[in-house]
């Protein structure tokens, strides 16, 4: 279920903070405080915050699990052997002979 948020300018929110808290706690609303029409902060109930944090933790665990299940990438040395690549980059010493200085 998606709950629509009630938007209120920060100057008005200052004057109505107690009422906004009641709307959030007892009315189950979410309140977005805006400045110049742009969202600044959100007021949500403690239960709502706990649910959002649990969802965030579950998503993070899913990402970690997905990344952990991916086989590690083959090494460059292994790929050279696999494809029979003999060339290798070696830095030049400035004289064009391909040796380090």
From TrEMBL:
Top-level taxon of the source organism: Bacteria
InterPro entries assigned to the protein according to its UniProt record, in alphabetical order: Antitoxin_Phd/YefM (IPR006442), phD/YefM_antitoxin (IPR051405), YefM-like_sf (IPR036165)
Low complexity bias locations: 66-76
Region of interest: Disordered: 66-101
Biased composition range(s): Basic and acidic residues: 78-101
Gene3D superfamilies per UniProt: YefM-like domain
One protein family per Pfam: PhdYeFM_antitox
Entry function: Antitoxin component of a type II toxin-antitoxin (TA) system.
Family: Belongs to the phD/YefM antitoxin family.
The protein's name: Antitoxin
Species of the source: Streptomyces rubiginosohelvolus
């Amino acid at each position: 279920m998606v709950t629509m948020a009630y938007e209120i300018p920060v100057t008005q929110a200052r004057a109505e903070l107690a009422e906004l808290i009641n709307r959030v706690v007892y009315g189950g609303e979410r309140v977005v405080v805006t400045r110049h029409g742009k969202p600044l902060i959100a007021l949500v109930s403690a239960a709502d915050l706990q649910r959002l944090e649990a969802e965030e933790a579950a998503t993070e665990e899913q990402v970690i699990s997905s990344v952990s299940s991916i086989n590690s990438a083959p090494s460059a040395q292994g790929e050279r052997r696999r494809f029979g690549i003999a060339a290798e980059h070696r830095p030049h010493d400035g004289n064009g002979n391909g040796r380090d200085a």
